[in-house]
Structure prediction request, 438 residues.
Amino acid sequence: MKPERGPLRVALLGCGVVGSEVVRLLREQAADLTARVGVPLEVAGIAVRRLDRVREGIDPALLTTDAQALVTRDDVDLVVEVIGGIEPARSLMLEAMKAGKSVITANKALLAEDGETLFAAARECGADLYYEAAVAGAIPLLRPLRESLVGDHVHRVLGIVNGTTNYILDQMDTHGAGFNDALEEAQALGFAEADPTADVEGFDAAAKAAILAQLAFHTPVTAADVHREGITEVTAADVAGAEEMDSVVKLLAICERVPAEDGRNGGRGVSVRVYPAMIPRSHPLASVRGAYNAVFVEAESAGPLMFYGAGAGGAPTASAILGDLVAVARNLVAGSRGPVEVTYAKLPVLPMGETITRYYVQLDVADRSGVLAAVAEEFARHEVSIQAVRQEGLGDDAQLVVVTHRAPDAALSATVERLRKLDIVREVASVMRVEGED
Ligand code: HSE
Prediction:
């Protein structure tokens, strides 16, 4: 007869907003969690930087500043890492796995910079590595990619994965606010950090895009591979231009498989990028308001799928961590393992210039004969096909809006550079990529 298994003991690294919420849920939902896992889940210890802070609802006897000793303790079965950053988080997780512990982490920066090392350690040590909370908070997204869709062929992942920037762009769209006013409001309401760089410059979204691309395409992608543009340059004119196109500006994380010219399976590589772009109001992502996140996945057999919900915050993030905890604990009870990551595809990440996109370009031009032809000539010179042109007279000047067909990004940006140099162009008032229409 199989011996009865005792409680499973959890070491927690970090006790901030998310960590303390995890402890609260483990305590308050203990009976349900025990029933779902088959054995109780107990907190064995909590590694913190300082012992002298009062932590409501946390037994001080559980606290330690020696994280390294905690993760290798014999009475610890699994480790939850919520300290973030690269070090010491990476070393601690590697030590834990080497000591046979399974690991649950919310660490997007580390997974995006060095996921390969963690995946390899999990494979070699026979440990589980779960990280649902690393991308889009509470939204079940990584488990569907790692498990439900692992038999399918994902073509594209298109997502709003940063709540702060979505809140700011939504305010700009709804109230006509400028970027700085919308940012100040987001900070006052606690949506944006005092130093908003990671969010508004797109670093946070780029890390998430790297993780999504690794899982979607089974290929190594790091944050450094991701083309990144933030939203600090988005103007009220860009947002008004989108409005006239019945579109909306969103910061998008886009992971795309680029097919080979002969259509061979596997393709030429992948394109992974983050930038503000116009999407039509009819697209499901256009209706994502406030600080919510949503991710649209297109797979060969499954077709289009949409995942929506809260992308940040203590409770939503703790929900994702608890889900992982129960999954790992069930595996331990059953003597089995969860999915292992194998980034076997080794697809090249293509440079942004080779990515096929569409542009919206708004120009203030002199209103006289030959101007439209001169502008069209620059697009033709770079083999960029124009889809639509709209012109509105403004006295001696005119406003010209050009929307292109799909073309390599290098050709589109070279066209815009040439337009900036033309005498007849008073100003290139707005340039924005157009996504979500094929
Ligand atoms: N700062 C992020 C956001 C949440 O605004 O969505 C953490 O990734």
